[in-house]
Specification:
Number of helices: 12
Strand content: 15-25%
Mean pLDDT: 97
Bound molecules: NADP nicotinamide-adenine-dinucleotide phosphate
Helix content: 25-40%
CATH superfamily of the largest domain: Dihydrodipicolinate Reductase, domain 2
Length: about 350
């Protein structure tokens, strides 16, 4: 059994640790907390040991803690960093590298520039093998992961007949659990979004991909609006949908009116954290006009990166082949079953 510590217990850290606890090959040492709030009790109530920074020990005198983050790191084989964007880099420099501990970082970090955490941005569909045996790897963010699940299968199928991809990311304002974060009544424009450049790290730096982003006041997923240009006449919508029939983490839905319908269904089916862990092609919105296919898909912002972190962990810790890792991840996340349930519920009505 390998020992894993999850540093950070927010939207992403709490999900990762909950699935790792179900993994018979992993011994979860515990989670790192930085603020002495109710989430310490929540973690304890779930049977998790809570560790805090040595310098903050006094702040937690009224809470049950198991020790310092520094000591937890000494005992682990790998750390999954789930810190707010930018803190992962600081943790790498101050904690993980000095202690020689392999680490997975989340999408709020960077793989370029002076604060790069790794030279690899992971996307299991595109570059699983490159992560095998590596010590520091960043998992792509939710939008970057979602785009990969659509772009890679399209490229596999249509290759040279693709001319360009234009994507507008409609991003959610906050996560469902972030109740302290108020939604602002505005549509915010994002200057120079990082997502296109991040995708190109695995899709190819010269890929004809053009990304714009706006943020809208919702907690219910991201929506990507994608136009795909072809050299000559574009394929029919049915040909596009067929590509995703057996794709991991992609469900094709016909009757969801909006992103909340999908979330509500996940909740009614008691999916963990109300996550689907996938993207949802809104098939009723796919059109083919001349040389262009227009499509839309929603991206489960918090859920989508969790099975990806699990795949990455297996490459780094166990050096498993893609197929072995895939089968093990599937045994824990049951993605095929979730996909089938979603597709049946939102099936086309004749
Ligand atoms: N939320 C999403 O939808 C989403 C999706 C994909 C990727 N990501 C990425 O995942 C990362 C985490 O995001 P999140 O949404 O989970 O954030 P979050 O909900 O704000 O949680 C952050 C957690 O990190 C802890 N923390 C604070 N300082 C830390 C430090 N120096 N080192 C380690 N942990 C620290 C916080 O502890 P306290 O609460 O105790 O202060 C909190 O538990 C970011 O890189 C983000 O970009 C987020």
């Amino acid at each position: 059994m390998k020992k894993v510590f999850v540093n950070g217990y927010g939207s992403i850290g709490s999900r990762i640790v909950s699935f790792l606890k179900d993994d018979p090959e992993i011994n979860v040492i515990g989670v790192g907390k930085y603020s002495p709030d109710d989430k310490v009790n929540l973690a304890n109530s779930k049977g998790l040991d809570v560790y805090v920074p040595e310098r903050k020990l006094n702040d937690f005198s009224n809470h049950k803690i198991a020790g310092t983050i520094e000591s937890a790191l000494d005992a682990c084989d790998l750390v999954v960093d789930a810190a707010p964007g930018g803190h992962g880099f600081k943790n790498k420099k101050n904690l993980y590298e000095p202690k020689n501990i392999p680490a997975i970082y989340q999408g709020g970090e960077s793989t370029t520039g002076s604060e790069s955490v790794s030279d690899l941005l992971f996307n299991s569909r595109a570059n699983y093998d490159l992560a095998i045996g590596k010590s520091h790897v960043m998992q792509g963010s939710c939008n970057v992961t979602g785009m990969g699940r659509v772009l890679e299968p399209l490229r596999d199928r249509f290759g040279d007949s693709l001319i360009r991809f234009d994507v507008t990311l409609v991003r959610r304002w906050a996560d469902i659990e972030q109740t302290e974060k108020k939604l602002s009544d505005t549509i915010e424009m994002t200057e120079k979004p990082h997502h296109g450049d991040d995708v190109k790290l695995y899709f190819g730096k010269d890929a004809p991909l053009y990304v714009r982003a706006i943020k809208v006041p919702t907690r219910q997923m991201h929506l990507h609006i994608m136009d795909i240009r072809f050299k000559s006449v574009a394929p029919k919508p049915s040909e596009i949908h067929d590509i995703f029939r057996n794709e991991f983490g992609v469900a094709t839905l016909w009757t969801a009116k909006g992103t909340k319908d999908v979330r509500d269904y996940a909740q009614s089916m008691e999916f963990n954290f109300t996550d689907t862990n996938m993207i949802h092609i809104h098939a009723n919105m796919t059109t083919s006009i001349g040389d262009t296919v227009q499509m839309m898909y929603s991206d489960d912002q918090t859920g989508i990166v969790i099975p990806e972190n699990h795949m990455l962990l297996q490459a780094m810790l166990f050096e498993k082949s893609y197929q072995e890792a895939f089968n093990h991840t599937e045994s824990i996340f049951h993605m095929k079953e979730k996909k089938q349930k979603l597709e049946t519920h939102f099936a086309k009505k004749d």
